[in-house]
Every structure is written in structure tokens, then in C-alpha cells.
Amino acid sequence: MSETITATRETTAAGEAPVQQLSMQQALNRALDEILAANPRTVVFGEDCGRLGGVFRITDGLQAKHGEGRVFDTPLAESGILGMSVGLAMAGFHPIPEVQFDGFAYPAINQIVCQIARMNYRSRGTLPMPITLRVPSFGGIRAPEHHGESLEALFAHVPGLKVVSPSDPHDAYHLLTYAASRPDPVIFMEPKSRYWQKGPVTFASETPDAGTAYAGAAPWAGLTGARVVREGRHVTLVAWGAMVARCLQVAELAAEDGIDVEVLDLRWLKPIDAPALVASVGKTRRAVVVHEAPLTSGLGAEVAQLITQGCFDTLKAPVERVTGFDVPYPSGDLEDEYLPNIDRILFGIQRVLEYRRG
Amino acid sequence: MSETITATRETTAAGEAPVQQLSMQQALNRALDEILAANPRTVVFGEDCGRLGGVFRITDGLQAKHGEGRVFDTPLAESGILGMSVGLAMAGFHPIPEVQFDGFAYPAINQIVCQIARMNYRSRGTLPMPITLRVPSFGGIRAPEHHGESLEALFAHVPGLKVVSPSDPHDAYHLLTYAASRPDPVIFMEPKSRYWQKGPVTFASETPDAGTAYAGAAPWAGLTGARVVREGRHVTLVAWGAMVARCLQVAELAAEDGIDVEVLDLRWLKPIDAPALVASVGKTRRAVVVHEAPLTSGLGAEVAQLITQGCFDTLKAPVERVTGFDVPYPSGDLEDEYLPNIDRILFGIQRVLEYRRG
Amino acid sequence: MDTKPTLAAVDDAAPLTQDELRELYSLMAAVRHLDTSAVAWQRQGIIPGYAPELGQEAAQVGSGYAVDKARDFVFPTYREMGVARAMGVDMVGYMSTHKATWHGGLYKPLESRFAPIQAVVAGSVLHAVGWAHGQTLAGLPAGHLGVALTYFGDGASSQGDVHEAMNFAAVMKAPVVFFIQNNGWAISVPTERQVAGGSVATRAAGYGIPAVQVDGNDVVAVFEATRNAFAHARSGKGPVVIEAMTYRRGPHSTADDPGRYRTLDDERIDAGEDPLERFRKRLLADGVADEAFIAAAHEAATAEEEAIRAGIEALGPRPGSEMFDLVFQETTPALESQAAAWREESEHV
Amino acid sequence: MDTKPTLAAVDDAAPLTQDELRELYSLMAAVRHLDTSAVAWQRQGIIPGYAPELGQEAAQVGSGYAVDKARDFVFPTYREMGVARAMGVDMVGYMSTHKATWHGGLYKPLESRFAPIQAVVAGSVLHAVGWAHGQTLAGLPAGHLGVALTYFGDGASSQGDVHEAMNFAAVMKAPVVFFIQNNGWAISVPTERQVAGGSVATRAAGYGIPAVQVDGNDVVAVFEATRNAFAHARSGKGPVVIEAMTYRRGPHSTADDPGRYRTLDDERIDAGEDPLERFRKRLLADGVADEAFIAAAHEAATAEEEAIRAGIEALGPRPGSEMFDLVFQETTPALESQAAAWREESEHV
Ligand SMILES: Cc1ncc(C[n+]2csc(CCOP(=O)(O)OP(=O)(O)O)c2C)c(N)n1
Ligand SMILES: Cc1ncc(C[n+]2csc(CCOP(=O)(O)OP(=O)(O)O)c2C)c(N)n1
Ligand SMILES: [Mg+2]
Ligand SMILES: [Mg+2]
Fold this sequence. Notes:
The complex is a heterotetramer, with 2 copies of chain A and 2 copies of chain C. Chain A is of the alpha/beta class.
């Protein structure tokens, strides 16, 4: 289920398919452009998504190219945007709405939890909800209040939703294309602090057929699971979104001390790729989960429990969690105190490495 | 921090203070009546809370007794009810709003998460939010859609909230009185399937002073922590709300097979009484967490991880979770298939008892 | 700023034929019998609960009768049994919700053009706007647009979603008819403590939406108002608000005790004449129907009710496996393993 | 159903004195200087971001000036710097939000009678209603009620919370003034694609709430409208809606690029005359002020801006321990242990 692509992604794929250096913003924009071109039932909308192209420019140029019917601005009301998405899906459309920032998903939670997540079930499969909700997510950009939230634990707890977060431009392009081709609702959490980082994106030589995607034809292979972004022997760091890059930095530093860190990008936050967790930690025997969201009842607890459940006999230390604190996401000045930083992650690694049964 | 009151609660306390047999509905109604009488800043409101006395009659008779200013009906809008609570708190009131059913808290999540939970922080402690939000919660009453939800994992993840759920009339009375006396927001989750079960409520001989409550004067002692409702040696069942009674039934059955089950009523779902978990499982060396909410990213993951963290060396088996499934809460006919039943809990116990390192 | 938006002229304003009037009566009679029986079923333990629509037959049948099932779509609440029946929804499938068989009902929403029963107050009003905007996006020519008909109550009108829906619909000129049944009560809260300004229809002007307040107990008036609204929306002129003034003659649901918040005298005075009785008198007075027709209609309604009850009594629980199988179009490994564990552990039970 | 609700007669309709008129000018000048400087601070890297209120000085100063700080309370958005200044809020504390020092600001809301800065669009409109209803519950006699003044924009008017707030306020006759600054834009979306019906004020009638639409670029007109609204609400007659028609002359925030959605020509035409310049001309024409006064006002404003900038530049980050200490009034053991871990691990950094 999981795919092993190490830092040498470009070279691996370069022989077979075209590779381009793109920022995540460019990769997402290109994916949306192609989705709109390929599937006439898709519609892209939200606050400032049309004329402006989104406050992060993810939908830049799409209205001009695909028309005001396919890409449009809505009034400023998130419940309206998501409630409208339900109706569009009932009418046979594939909505790709945007919530402008993570913290503004809350006004839409009622529609997301009670309607989007349940309509397929309620209607006994006759009213599917092929909605991909894009949410610029997580912190790290010194933004105003409510612009740095991590809602994955909330979304992952809701039956009927699937949740994914890409950590680099390649995954952003492919996971969005994949999510928008599926018949179930997907919450697509974009790590906004990574929008402007460039990275190689490998494109398919030909457009993959939506139907085969789940089956696993390259480059869609492994899209449904976690991804080992760096192999290592001593400890597994599990992360998603912007924390993946931070964990890779940590791994570099730890390597200087002879600690060989494996970094697993969870990617899918629901369903979680438990076999990938067990495979990695079964090998390293130690794990640290890293996320931006507050500790308590965060997704790190679920990840830790899945690891413990699957690796109880081999685990050398209890799984550590290095996370945001149980405090409201702070103002820019304190952001670095709140977010898991390199030192805190290193301390977490140290704790699992030095753990001795009492 | 935790208090050990076994099933003999009545006899323990009977010598010192008056005891009455009350249903949880009666205990809650009485607590609200006394709170309104004692604190002129408290106001009770919500949909149908006034004239009707609430669809569960928790506020029965309170409007007639305390007046239409203190106990009132609002228009049908949950965001309105909670948003209004913020303003009342800013004006110095102690609001005790009701959301009619768990599933109808979703329209108010924005106000709960972004406003109630953060106003004290945002205002640097100058605008406290002494709001006790009563939410008839959980399933088991064969009710319509959205009337059987378990939102504790969502609430527990929100920095700035405290979350509590009583499992019997005594705790219902005391925890509500306690919550409403505190200066921070508390989500008070009432297990609606237990409203009509009677049990002994021990009253204080004299009204306790709010200030001493946190310090621990009886019968307020231990109100801030978990509670061992049944002592046992072989395995700890951790539960809250309506699942506590079910776990006690399971314990009776298990005892027939010579299995001595300890039942821990977590009570506070945020903050979680980790020392009580560790004390209990440190002794029994095995634990099963039981909750109604869906498995993934449920509060059971947090509880399990806290136990694993605190008891890693002594645990004989990975913590088991017996929970609702990752499916929308079903219609009455399938409720018993969805909820953790006696058999499924017994299987969970069996799994931790029979676990052998591989 | 003060000009009131008005409805466009109606294309097809032909009066109802005598056959149609009689059909409306038969539908109302069928609804009345099923509704009152369902309350009895609850008392008899056949179903765990029910939300009666007693007194709202004219509002529901009159509006539902105006729907063009070839192209329109209806978004009900939990109380639109009369609309369902008027539209020909499978009534065993409909009532199965109240037997606690399946949330949303067992009928087929796409074929019925009747969305799943909605328990969240105001939950589906925005869906109607989205569906309606979809009709515009689909590029059907004006005059041929499918229209979304969304029902909600006076209580629901307080929800933020209703405001967002009206504003979205008006900004987008979506072909939606907002149909409010103002039945005087939201459980125990009377309209005057719920609806500031006294009327939901009045609010429409603020969005530039034409609105009509109609006697909700006059089935012909309701039908005509709805037909006019459909014509307006269908022609691409945007949304319409209809407020049907009616009265909830029964309890909110079988769990409710209206004696706690209104007296029988209040009820008698506020309810006005029974809409079914009123229509009967009118048909007889106008010579559209005779006593024999009326008797036959009630006999048919009784037979229908009995058949539906038999269907409901025969209805077994759905297999538990549906809990898992119907969550997604594409299930997940995690969910499959939960289903497997459930199967294993429930076999032992 | 069609009678428009009207404002009660105003108790104290004395015209503004010449001193007051000059004070209004000084306030507007101070706001203008601080506002344009804040944009410069952002370019200079002194603050990470700012939402200018250029062009809205009359709407903000005129309304804020009507507040009785002894009993009223103001609920701002993220753009009410001019209101804050008019009310005498500590401006270093206010601007600290934009330095990313503390969400909500470092000023004291209770003393300032100015709630913490609110970043959720429409987030605090309901707070105003609750606070206002608290004034009624406190039993103050009519005529002496504290009034809640809540600000929001044309974009915010689309949010469900605004509807719920207006309905609650009207049902409860709460002393609230809803003050909309219709500045033509919500980021890139113009009012005509946002506000169906074209005006937020028009909606008020649907709730039975009196409303006025006022020239938001005329500081005196805004002041008078607000004073009248306060008198109405204070006397127990319930809420009022004011829609101040103005124009957002700058970008939405320093991160915005208006060139993507409007041309400079559009701006010139739509913005109308600069409200500060307009007021200057009026004061000079009426002989209320002379050029010397105007020059002095701008000099004072410059000095004030410099002092505030110095304050902002001197402002260090808050200690990280506040993250933990300010979550609750009564902290929890779990949070204390997180704070302890943070202290330990950050000492090593
Ligand atoms: C969001 C939400 N809040 C609360 C409820 C509980 N509830 C069910 S029906 C009802 C009253 C609805 O009144 P109204 O909209 O007038 O419709 P009616 O019942 O009169 O048909 C309430 C409060 C709910 N179902 N959904
Ligand atoms: C609930 C919510 N959704 C989205 C945003 C992002 N956002 C911030 S300001 C704004 C536009 C607000 O427009 P308006 O209400 O007219 O106020 P103005 O900015 O013009 O003062 C948006 C969409 C937000 N802050 N809150
Ligand atoms: Mg009603
Ligand atoms: Mg605006």
C-alpha cells in the first residue's frame, strides 16, 4: 500500500516521464486546470476564487480560461459554500470548493459533518458526494488569528470523509488530481507554508484513466497510502503537511550524530495507512509523531495507538508525540514557540532512543 | 486526583450527609435550580428551555420559579445561542446555554471553537467565559438522525475548553454545580440514555463555597478527576457517560468467569486525569477503552496513548479500543449493532487477557 | 430601495380542472388518514416516533402537486409526508424512517425527485440552492429550467443557513422556490417569539426576492401560488419565497406534550377551520364532488393506509453490513477491517 | 407587513459644536496618518501585515465619536482602527496585533470599552447582541441602557451569524446598533455580487428593525445617524441598522493586489471625494477652522504616528509562557506539564 520514494524522486522518474520544477502553488493550479479541462462536471468556487484567483493564487487564471460558470466567486459564507456543494453534487456536478483559510472551515462544519459526509450513506449510495474541499491549512506564515489551524483530527473523526495532505509539489499535483477523480468527499489540506517551495513534479506520459487510479498505475501508484520519504534504521518520524520538510531537516541533523532517521509522510489522514506505519516502525522499533495541531485528542494519538497496536512486541519505547501545545494557535511572535521545532523533535527522538525499561 | 468510590457509594456517604434517590434528570434539574438561586448572574436558555422545560425536562419549572429573564427560550439557531453566550459572559453573566441535541452543536462550532474557547486568551484573561454548555449527548434511545452523536473528541481537541460527562445522578448533580461555579467554559455532556435511571445523590450538609471546590472539600472532593467505580485486579475498563453502566454490567459477567474487572469512569474528557489512568492500569496491567464515538481519532486513542505512555513497562498487552465504528450513527434498528455491546467489550477483555508476545 | 420585487406573469394560468380538484381532495384524504394512523402506530408500538403534519395537508399537497417530476427536485424536512404522498413517493419507503429502519428513508431519492428526509433544521435549504444553480450551469434555456422546491418551517427561518441560502440564490438568480410552512410553532416556541418582524415572506424583499404569503389551509391557493412561483423560477428570473400560513394542529412529534405550552382553547382559536373539511365543503358547494366521491376517497385512503401499515409491519431491520457498505462509494481498508471484526464478533452473539 | 419600522425621535439632537467639529477633524487626520504610515511600516518590515481603512475615516470616526464610554461597548472587526482611535484606545496596544504580538491586541478591552480585534468575519456580531441583552437583563431603566455597537462589512453581511444576530436582537429588543461599513468590496468581490437586493439596510425591515443608509464619507452625517440610533436603542426600543456607504480606497490588506480585480479608473470613479479632504473644505468654508488649524492637526497627527511607531518598534515579543498562562482562568495539570516541558526544552535552544 505504501510507496517508497526517497529524496531521489527526480532521478527515479526522470527516465520515464516529463519532470518539471514547480512550486506547490503552481502544481495545484495546474492540477485544477487539467481537472477542469478533463471533466466538464467539475466546478471550482469559493471566496475570491474567481477574478482574483484566490488569496494564494491557487485558482489563478482558471476563470479566464474555463469561464465564469466553471470557476466563480461566492458570497462570503462558508456554510453557504459547502451547503451549495451538496446540492451541486446531487445535481451531478463534481464541486471543488475552497475555504479561504483553515479557521474558516468552522462555520461550515455543520454542512461538512451532517451533510457532505452523510449524504451517500443516508441516500443508500444513490446521492454520492464527489466533493473535494480544498483548505489552505496549518501555520507557519505569521498570519492573523484563525489563519494557522490544523483541523485534521476533527475531519479524520468524521465517518464518511476522506482526508489527505500533500507535503510537496509532486504529491500536491497528483493527490489533488486523484482526489477530484474519486466519487467520495475528500478534505484536501494544503500546507500553506509550503505553497512557494519548488520541487520536481513528474507528470504522467499520458493522462491516466480515473478508473484505474485506485488500482495503482504509475504515477498514481501508491497515491492511496503513506510514503517513506527517507529511509532510516533507528527511529521513524511520522508527519504530514509542512512538518514533513521539518522532519527531513531533523533527519539530516540527526545523521550528523549517527542517528539514522526514517521519515514517513502519512499523506492520508483518513484512512490512515496502518500497514505502512507498522512496516516502518516494525523495522526501526521507535517512533515519534509530529504535528502542528494541539496534543490532546490530536491525530498523533491515533497514529501512536495504531503503531503500538501493530508493533507492541517490538517497540523499544512508547511512541512519542511532538506537537503543538493545548493552547490557541498564537500570534506570529510566538509561532516558533508553539510549532514543533527542530530541537523539540530532536528531544523527542532522544527520548525514544534513550528509553530504558524501568 | 482521582477518587475511589465503589458501588457502595450510598453507604459510604450516608452517615454524613443527606442522600436521595433521584434520576439524572431530577438531579440536573435540581442542580440548575440551586445554581440559579445561588448566583444571580446565571442565566439558562436555549431552544424550548423556558416554557416547555426542555425536550428532556432538564429545565422543567425553572422559568416559572426564576422568571423569564433568567430562564428563556431563544429562536432556533445554535450559533445564535452560543454567540449570544459570549456577549452575555462579556457583560458579566454566567450563561448556561443548552444545545437541544448533540448533533445540533455543529452549527455552533464556529462560536464554540473560535470565540468561547479563545476569548479569555485573546483578551489576556480580562474577558473570562464562565459558560457551561449543556449538551444532551450520545446514543442509545432509538432517536432520529443526528440525535445520537458523541462529540467529545472534537471538544477535547479544542484548546480553551474543559469537557466533562457524568455517568450517574450523583455526579450529574455535583459536576454541573461545580462546572457552573468555575470561571472557564465547560462542555457538559449529558448521557441522554441515562436521564431516567435513578441513583443515590449525596448532598452537602451545607452549600460549599465555590472557591474551595477546586481545593477538594467533600463532597466536591475529587470532582476534577476520574473515579474508580469498581475495583478490580485483572483489567481496567475506561469509559464515560452511558458506557460506564454498560462496563459495570460487563464486569459483573466477567466476574462469573473469575475475571476481576476495574471500571474507571473518566468523567473529565479534558483535561484527562492521566494519573488515575496510570494508577489503575499500573495495577491491572491491561486496559480496554470503551466509547460510543467512531474509532478513528476518537478520544479512545488519546486515552490509550496516555496509558501506554505511563505504563509502557508494565502493560501486558496493547490497550484495546471497543468503540463505535467509522460509520455515521445509524438508525434505531442498527443502533445495537453500532454501539459497543456487552459481547464486544468481553471480546476486548479477552484480547488483552490472552495477548502473548509473539 | 423600497420597490417590492414582484413575480413575473404566469405562463400557464389555466384553472384546475374538476378532475384535478378531486384528485387534490383524494390526496389530502390519503395524507390525513396516513398521518393520523401513524400517530396510532406509535401508540401501538409499531413505530418508535412520528412527526404529524395534521392541519398542514393543504399546504403540503397543494405545493407538492405543482412539482414537475420530469425536471424539478424537492428538498423536504422531517414533516413533509404530505408532499411525498402528493408526489407519489413510495410511502412504505418514506415511513420506514419513522420505524427507525434507515435515516433518510428507503425510497429512491433520484427517482422520486424527493431528497432524503432531513432532520437538521434548515439543513437542506442550501442544497436546494446548489441544485438549482446546477440547473443554470447545465445551460438549459430559460423556461425549461428544473426548479428546486425547498421546505422549511417558521423555526428554521431563524437559522443562518436560510439567510445564506436566500442571499446565494438571489445573487446567482438560482431557480429555487423557498416554501415556508409557518405553522405557528417550533416545538414550544410560537412564531411571535421566533420570527422578528412577524413574517418570513417580508424578509424576501431585503434580498430582492419576490414573495407571497398565502393561506396555507386553502389547497387551491397554495397550488396556484406554487405554480406561479415555479413559472417565475423556471423562466430564469430567480428565486421566489412562499410563506404558507397554517397551523400545527398536533404535537411537534409523538414525544411532545403541547399541553405544557398551549391550551386546547388556544388551539381551537388559532387553528381555524380544518383544511380538509374546508375543501370538502367547497367541492360540495361548487358541485365538483358529491358525498359519494368523498366517501370513496376516504375509503381508498383507509385501504391505502392499511397497505402501508402492512408494509411497515413487514419491514425487517436492514442488515448490519449496510452500516459499512454504504458509507462510501469506494470503501477503505480500515473500514473493511472494522466490518470484518463486526461480522466475526456478531456471529458469536 | 409593509410598514417600514422607523427610528424613535432623538432625545438630544443638539448640533455638534465648533470644538467638536474640529475634534472630529483632528481625529480623522490622526487616523489618516497612522493608517497610511502603517502601510509604510509593513513595507519597511516593521510589521508583517495591515488592513488599511483608507477612505473609511469618516464612517469610523463619526460613529466611534458617538459612543458613551461610560456605558456602551464596541465590537470591532479587524479594520476599525479609526473607531479605536476615536474612542481613545491605546494605539500601541491596538497596533500590536499587526506586529503579530498578540491576537486581539494588547489594549484592555474592558477599560477601553472596545472588544478584542476580531478576525472571524461576522464573528462578533452575535456577541454584541448577547452583551446588549445583558443590559436589558441587568434591569437598567429605559433611557439608561448601555448600547452595543457592532461593526461589520458588506461581505460579512452574507454570513448566517448576521441574520441570527438581527433576528435575536429584534425578538429580544436588545439595545444594539448594527453598523455596516459598505465599502464596496469584500477582498475582490464587489457589493453587487455579494449583497443581494443591493443594500444591507434594506434587510432590516424584514426583522422590523429601523434602518438608515447614510453617506459614510460625511463624518457629521455618520455621527448624527449613530447618535440617533444610540438614543433609540438606549431608550429600550430595540436594535437599529446603520449602513454607511463608503469605499475601501486601499487594498484589502498589505497582502492584497487590487489591480487584479479593479482598475485605477474604477477606483477614481467609485471612491468619490476623499472624506478627509471633503471635511477640510467644509470646515474652511463654514469658517469652523482655518488653514492654521488644519496644519496643526496634521502636525499633531504626524507626531502621534511617530510616537506610536516608536512604541511598536520598541515592542518586544510576549514571553512564551503567556501561551499557557492565558488559556484558562484556572489552569489544568495537563497544561502545566506541557508548559514545564516547553520551558525545559526551550532553555536548551
Ligand atoms: C439544527 C437543529 N436544531 C434543533 C433541532 C431540534 N428540532 C427539531 S424540529 C424543531 C422545531 C422546528 O420548527 P419549525 O422549523 O417551525 O418546523 P416545524 O417543526 O414546525 O414543522 C427543533 C428545535 C434540529 N432538528 N436541528
Ligand atoms: C469567517 C471568515 N471567512 C473568511 C475570512 C477571510 N476574509 C477576511 S476579510 C474578508 C472580506 C471581508 O469583507 P467585508 O465584510 O466587506 O469587510 P472589509 O474587509 O471590506 O472591511 C474575508 C473573506 C474571514 N476572516 N472569516
Ligand atoms: Mg413551525
Ligand atoms: Mg467590505
